Every structure is written in C-alpha cells, then in structure tokens.
Amino acid sequence: MIFKGIGDSRPYPDHGLASPKQWADVPPRQIRLDELVTTKSTLSLDTLLAEDSTFFGDLFAHVVQWRGDLYLEDGLHRAVRAALHQRAILHARVLVLDD
User: What are the start and end residues of every segment in region (Disordered) (predicted)?
Assistant: First the structure.
C-alpha cells in the first residue's frame, strides 16, 4: 500500500491557509508516504504527467496533522510521482492542528 488511507474530504477544521505564500511560513520536513491519508480520491492524469506542475505553486506538498493523522491536503500528484519512482519519502510542509 502506498498511503495509510484514501479519503475524499478534509476531516479537520479550516485552518485559513489558502495560498502558497501563506503556507511558506510552515517549514518543510520529510514524511513517509505510508503515514499519509489523502484528502482526494482521484487524480487527474494530466496533472500527474505535467512537467511544470509546481511552476506556479509551492515546491512542497501541504500536509495537515490532526488528531494523530497526517492528511495530504495538496500535492497528491507529487506523492504519486514519488511512489512511481519507488521513493517512500515526500518533502512536505506540515501544519500541526492537533488539540
């Protein structure tokens, strides 16, 4: 299994970070793919295969830690690409919302 779980929504409360500029204050770290729960159950193939998919966005995936789980909010294409290259680690900005 690539991910810990596959979801199709964000179970955590709104955190107010919407743009890459807002996420830039969250330091990146390495996360294992098998620790992540996705918040999207589908991925567009053109997004996965696009060479410039991070050109206008953040270089790092966005992850929210909530109630002990790590949710992949943005960067599913990066995570799948890492898995296809047989890498178990993803660099991501991790926002901690734990109570």
Answer: 1-23
